[in-house]
Amino acid sequence: MKKRIGMAVVLLAVMGTIMAAAAFVLLHKDSTRVEQSRETIKQETIENEGKAYASRYKLQVSLDTKKKVLSGTVCATIKNATDEDLNRICVRNWAAAILKGTTVKTEIFSAKIGKKNLQITKKEDASVLYLSAANRLLVPARSFVDVVFSFRTEIPKQKNRFGYVRFDGHEMYQLSFCFPSISLYQEGNWNENPYLGDNDETYVNEAADYDVTFLHPKKYTVAATGTECPAQEGTRITGKKLREFAAVVSDDFCRLDAREGKTDITILAPNYKKNEGYYKYSLRLAKEAVRVFSEKIGEYPFAELKIVHCFFDGAMEYPGLCMIGMPDVKQFRSIEKDSYGALESHVPHEIAHQWFYAAIGNDSYKEPWLDEGFSEFCEDVLFPYFASKKLQKKLWGDKYASRKDMDTWFQKIVIPQTTRAKAINGKVSDYQESSEEYSTCVYEGGKLFLYELWKTMGGKTFFEMLQKYYQTYQFRIVTTEDFLSMVRAYGKDEKVEQIIERYVE
Q1: Which of 4, 198, 455, 461 would you label with 95, given CA atoms 20 to 30 Å apart?
Q2: How far apart are CA 172 and CA 176, in angstroms?
Q3: E strands along 202-352, which residues?
Q4: pLDDT 10s digits, 19-33
Q5: Rounded distance, CA 432 to CA 7, Å?
Q6: What residue ranges do the domains of the chain occupy?
Q7: Comparing 253-352 with 363-503, is the CATH topology the same?
Q8: Is the pLDDT of residue 82 over 50?
């Protein structure tokens, strides 16, 4: 996410190896599937040892545009790659946290494994629910189970990442953080990271495959994470290795298309011809960002990239999908030239998240710098540094005249960072003393840390390291130590260690 200001199961006791295997076969009548599933787990869980997580989702979703309700069923295939027999499954319903204190409601109900009903228990944090069942082995160690549950969520009228907006007789539904998902189990616990507000992401998800049937009125178009194709009464969306599902739905989309390398890029936005220049500039920035980041980091991780211009402040990333906030609803019909500058920040930043968050995952509550600091570095340093000369002139304005000037500028702002009170690799909750603290440490600090490593290690070594980091951890979840191990493998200079000591705790 690009901030405008700072801060803003698997279940029950083991009953013996033979009984565990028997229970598993009963849940999955197709014995061939059981054998294949166990073999798949053997191959796929090497990188996810010690975890339980959802590897596949099948969703049946319905959008009622009259009642403003999103409802449906979620079938999650949960893999247990631990040595434990787990006795409960944690589900995250982020909409409950977003809607807390309002009259708008959300509910998860009718949870089952096969024909067996599960008990649903809510925690004090309404976004955390547990599914359990008495005296039944639900997930033997190193196997999988399909959990099915239903949900119903009312959609609030608001300019937000989750909400709907009316404009000139049309509607736009911005649907993120409203599709329930399975939490991640590791180190003996289900992840219960708190929801801290609209300007922060505090979740962590393993990459999963999605198959979504999205029912909606015919006149509406869906832009979602994954690939869309028309289906009876709606749209079918499929995607591989996605960390979450999100969608934007509207009855008034215009569309611009382009291709950069192997990547199809699409701009979707409210259909106003006076904004054509704004949308074209967004497309231009998107193409250049994909080119630069692909060359310097590694190939774009998905086949498609969709940029959707929405009605909220700031911008937000999802796998293969970026929501870019536009000026206020009352002003968007003809966006002024002075608003174009926001695109130069938002578009490359959210696209950078396709590498750092969507591809290389991290716990965004415990170590947010691993995606936000990297994306800020891509936006403020890599993108303007390696953009085409024609675009550079526009991006630099009066600030720089050359790359040398840009380096001089960054060297000046690096100096104050040597006296930073807090390290860059803290939790979101560690940066609450002022409104600017989170942004300064995580976004700016992460950016400058990477800049210093680049200039100290040298371009050739630094980018070899960055590309190796991307290749090694693509579609995995990393920690700060994973990154530092990679840095130390390439940067053996004492100066590199000194830089690490200044920024990292």
Answers
A1: 4
A2: 13
A3: 208-215, 221-224, 227-231, 234-242, 247-250, 253-260, 263-270, 304-310, 315-318, 321-325
A4: 333 333 333 333 222
A5: 7
A6: 17-242, 253-352, 363-503
A7: yes
A8: yes
State how far the Cα of 210 lies from the Cα of 261, in Å rounded to an integer: 25
Of 39-43, 85-89, 198-202, 248-252, give the lowest mean pLDDT range.
Answer: 39-43
- Look at residue 497 and tell me whether its pLDDT is greater than 90: yes
Helices (H) and strands (E) in the chain, counts: 14, 25
Q: Roughly how many angstroms between the first and final C-alpha of the chain, as a whole number?
A: 24
pLDDT bin (cut points 50, 70, 90) of residue 84 is confident
Residues 6+ apart with CB under 8 A from 37: 28, 143, 144
Please report which confidence band the pLDDT of residue 143 belongs to, taking 50, 70 and 90 as the band edges.
confident
Instruction: Check residue 198 and give its pLDDT.
Output: 66
Query: Running DSSP on this structure, what letter comes out for residue 355?
Result: T
Task: Kindly report the pTM of this predicted structure.
Answer: 0.90
Is pLDDT at 218 greater than 90 in this prediction? yes
Token pair of 271, please?
Answer: 């259909």
* CA-closest candidate to residue 212, choices 18, 70, 409: 70
Q: In this predicted structure, what is the pLDDT of residue 30?
A: 31
Question: Please, what is the Cα angle at 316 between 155 and 423, to 5 degrees?
Answer: 125
Q: How far is CA 467 from CA 32, 374, 459, in A?
A: 40, 13, 12
**Topology given in CATH for the domain delimited by 253-352:** Neutral Protease; domain 2 (1.10.390)
Contacts of 422 (CB under 8 A, 6+ apart): 430, 431, 437, 441
Q: What is the pLDDT of residue 85?
A: 86
CA distance 400 to 312: 31
The CATH number of the structural domain formed by 17-242 is: 2.60.40.1730
- Give the residues across from 345 on adjacent strands: none
User: Regarding the domain delimited by 363-503, which CATH topology (the fold level of the hierarchy) does it fall under?
Assistant: Neutral Protease; domain 2 (1.10.390)
* Cα dihedral 417, 421, 423, 426 sign: negative
The DSSP code sequence of 82-131 is: SSS--B-EEEE-HHHHHTTTSS--EEEEEEEETTEE-EEEE-SSTTEEEE
Residues 59, 212 contacting (CB under 8 angstroms): yes
Do the Cβ atoms of 117 and 200 come closer than 8 Å? no
d(CA 323, CA 1): 9
Alpha helices in 271-402 (DSSP H): 276-296, 341-352, 369-377, 383-386, 389-396
What distance in Å separates the CA atoms of residue 105 and residue 98, rounded to the nearest whole number?
10
Label the pairing between strands 170-175 and 162-167. antiparallel
Distance CA 423, CA 447 (A): 13
CB 173 within 8 A of CB 40: no
What is the per-residue pLDDT across 347-396, written as a single tens digit (0 to 9) for each? 999 999 999 999 999 999 999 999 999 999 999 999 999 999 999 999 99
Determine which helix (DSSP H) or strand (DSSP E) holds 72, and give its type and residue range. Answer: strand 69-80
Comparison of pLDDT for 40 and 300, the residue scoring more: 300
